[in-house]
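Q: Sequence in, structure out?
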Amino acid sequence: MAGAENPWVLGPIIIPLFGAALCLLLSQNNRLQRIVALIAGLAACLASIVVLLANLEAGSVGVQIYRLGGWATPFGIVLVADKLAALFCVMGSIVVAAGLLYCLQCHDKCLEYPVFMPAFLCMGAGLSGSFYTGDIFTFFVFLELMVMSSVVMVAVADSSLGLEAAIKYVFISGMGSLLLLLGIAALYTTFGTLTMAQIAQAFSTGERPLLAVPAALMFIIAFLIKSAVVPFHFWQPDFHTTAPTPVHGVLSSVVVKVGIYGIIRNTSSYLVQEGDLIRTILIVLGLVGIFFGGLTALRTWNAKRMLAYSTLGQVGFILVAIGWGSQLAIVAAIIYIFNHAFIKSGLLMLTGVIASHNAKHSADLKDLAGSGKGLKFISVLYLVGGLALAGVPPFNGFMSKVALVRSGAGVESWIVLGLVVAGGLLTMIYMTRTWQWIFQQEPPEAEDTGHAPAHAPHKSDSPLAPALLIAACVLLGIFAGPLVTLSEDTAAQIASPEIYACSVLAQMVESGMSLPEGSYDCTGGMEISAAPTALPVLVMEVPGR
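A: Exactly. Output:
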């Protein structure tokens, strides 16, 4: 069962890189840079959707593959887009494209730097490459491309604290990068290959050479750092808050999901035998993150920083779902990951739009108090986004919470489920408080003089990008059926890791090469099992199914 060769897999990576090179050539024309970057982002998004559709057309075992340079496995680098990678790439490329659309009418001074738009596109390329790569060292390369690109954009941000936050992140992220490199070296020393499929095949035997488990654990710790999981979160609030609005919208919604993607890959392909212990740890970390993120967001008086801390809590919900470990729980995690990306990026961009209406462009609530009172359209968008994040029907966040509760009930983890529901109430509290503070409170100037503060609409950012993202939140809530179906298929494919491995390794069989020792039979066809019986219960209650 060989994966289908599909050159479109290269699109979400090479198109942004080509756009970045073109933007460097247009460094003297910032407006044209932004237009070219947006075109490149939209083209990359289209390519990722084509890859996902090809996966769906190929059926239950369809995996799209592109071997760089035509080199056969294991001699060359291979890009592998199974349903998990394809879905994550679509999510990431859509949010990146929305960020580039926001840049088109963003008035932050840092966007005028010639390096800003190329760095934004490189971040998008690194994000897509991290999801698609089937080689662990190339994963490290794409991850560092994404990290360093975001560091550059935060370092040149308008905020005076941008450079400090960027340096802090470089040092803390460097620890995660070091762990990744040590893990890669250990795996290569142990198995003699960098191809993920071969490593998964080796782990499938059940044997654990001396360095195998420590290497995989180093990977997981590095992923926890990259995803800002409490207590590895110290870099995140400063780094995300000082980032320019379009960058923050990508960082807090999809960039943190790269680590989550890595955790799912590791626990499903490598550390299957050690899964119970790892899942228990993930549940504990998830619960800590839910309450730490929610309570800290309640005590934060900066709208962007509040949403940054909120991300810690939302990642906690996802970790709990992964920790429950059932197939239904993985479905819930995937739905939550996808929906959260649109909600959080939309809210962050709306915050940037609101902040652009005050002279300081400040997101401090003392400066935003009452500043949105005359912005009726933006007020509605922010309220919808806040309700979606809190899980109120009929928005997409409600489907995320329903799936999470169903999966918790399915494994009968009642105490953890009760804590999860209680933690979810915190989201409603801090989002409602922020909305009332910005859109319902009287501006301080109005209290003193009786006149509303002067706005500068000619300098305000465009709400088009966040409006489209919030509209997607509404549509994904009303018509949730396709996402649920796709999440079910993805979870079923994850539960059969031999599909991923054999799709890559089958070419070795066809060319007469011997496969590495393992328990996966890649010499014939295979079909994955159907979704568990608990899933139709969830599906029947999905609007638009």
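The mean pLDDT is 85.
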